Amino acid sequence: MARNRGNNTQEESLERQLWKAADKLRKNIDAAEYKHVVLGLIFLRYISEAFEELYVKLESGEGEYEGADPEDRDEYKAVNVFFVPPEARWSYLQSKARQPDIGKIVDNAMDAIEKENPSLKGVLPKVYARGNLDPISLGGLIDLFSNVSLKQAQSRSADILGHVFEYFLGEFALAEGKKGGQFYTPRTVVELLVEMLEPYNGRVFDPCCGSGGMFVQSEKFVAEHQGRMNDISIYGQESNLTTWRLCKMNLAIRGIDSSQVLWNSEGSFLNDAHKDLKADYVIANPPFNDSDWGGELLRNDARWKYGVPPVGNANYAWIQHFIYHLAPTGVAGFVMAKGSLTSKSSGEGEIRKAIIEDRLVDCIVNLPPKLFLNTQIPACLWFLSRNKANGKYRSRTDEILFIDARNMGYLINRRTRALSREDIEKIANTYHNWRNPNGHYEDVKGFCKSATIEEVRQLDYVLTPGRYVGLPEEEDDFDFKERFTKLKAEWEEQLKEEARLNALIAENLKKVKVDE
């Protein structure tokens, strides 16, 4: 955990301290349930902070605020600030933190905020009066988040709380393990996707958006590259209601418009919430090898241009869903099970062949193991481009870039790996140098290879990067005789040791007397 996880050491330290304190107050509550308690409070603190900052300006009545009424809801709506009624303001909750009925007070605050702000209807958790959360622990959490120091950078308070929210999402995902992966894509994987796609402007779409990490990272990318936040608009869909609620809060705390992030229980295949959308960027991490996707009801769907995906596996349904929603010059980057690169069962090989021959595949990245919390299935990244001959980049119509990053990353714990900042930059820069007209790209044995469509045909449309990049130079110099001699000597030594131990056991057995 000591590796670089961000740019601001002070904020990291704050996040870690808050997490440790909040986790101590968790006691016997399951992490899956506790996350709604904690993240709801962080969200409440954020909207109250933003509201009270504007309230003070309106109350002063100076300059552009002359004659303004600080209790006028329209004043807040005009600048996209949530209106917080008196009984839901953080200062009020803080004053009641030691009351035995603080749980009911917080639940009522959540209700009051939803009534005042229609976009939050059905989003906020009302779990604070439940019996397994004692008032002392809840009061301790309110005190904890009251002490978040925001006064040093008021204009960045939302960003600080946004970092805290994002950090807690990741820690809860780790605490939940397999279940946590259903709402959270590891941050470094999201960063890599966004760094490679570079979503500067246009429509960004994620049809299985989880807690919204792809959208948050896209907005961050624009901000960090001096772009304008209003230049991108986001569209999303999520079938899990509790995950959708987390997403809405995550986006609201960042000031990101989530009006087009929609929920329905049927999901993207059976009830496509954005049927007519043609996106400039598709960024997604769909469920791997999903067998319960409703495929038997969609045999004649218009999305299956390249072949009907098998009922028992949604991988190629997702890939074609992404393609269907791409604009004429759109690009897609998404996570997929590594098996999608080689599978030939139930027509998947023919679908992959058709997609390759239509010149849609731009780049394939083989990922390291242990990146994902909810699965040990090997994973890869696909990058598709609707028009590889467009004027924005060089024409690479008959080429596909393969990157093998299997050996990159570092261990967070025994079960979980992450990509370092250097790893992300190396992979993304390789792609950019290959794609850009003035880029300085070279094949590197064991890491990257720009292959022609003809080479892919010769390998029967298998897209595994290792088949193209070859072995690193040092492995090409492998000395079989030297290695064999060394292994033979080790084996002979082990046989001698085994013989010695067997003799010792036999000697000891002779000394054992058994009463007849």
Could you explain how this protein is built, in words?
With 516 residues, this protein is of the alpha/beta class. The protein contains 18 helices and eleven strands. The protein has helices spanning 9-26, 31-60, 73-77, 90-95, 102-116, 135-146, 157-176, 187-197, 213-224, 241-252, 267-270, 315-324, 348-357, 421-435, 453-458, 466-469, 473-476, 480-511, and strands spanning 202-206, 232-238, 261-263, 279-284, 326-337, 361-366, 379-385, 399-404, 410-411, 417-418, 448-452. The strands form two sheets. The chain has a nine-stranded mixed β-sheet. A two-stranded antiparallel ribbon has the order 9-10. Helix 2 runs parallel beside helix 10 (241-252) and helix 8 (187-197) packs parallel to helix 14 (421-435). The chain starts with 8 loop residues before the first helix and ends in a 5-residue tail after the last helix. 40% of the residues are buried. The model is unreliable at 1-12 and 150-156 (pLDDT under 50).
